[in-house]
What does this fold into?
Amino acid sequence: MPKKLLFYLQITGLVMGKTGQILEKSATGFKRYLTDWKNLAMHALIGVALVVLAIWAPVPLYGKIAIFLLVVVFNVFRMRINSKKRAQATVNNA
It folds into this structure.
């Protein structure tokens, strides 16, 4: 977690208790999600596909939002599966 964010959370008292734990976990997960190159590549490909598709067949806004949400859900599940595999491999190698 970035030091500035942690400092802000400590000042506001959000690090203490369940709210702080949830916020810290969310921030860490969000950072991992945004720094994963596979997620960035997938979002870039979907963005280009939506632009190209919009030229030939206009996609309604709710359709674009639904595709975006499906990509996010797919990437989160992929990250969780990879995380479990890495943890299992670490346990097996130890």
Summary: DSSP finds four helices and no strands in the chain. The mean pLDDT is 76.
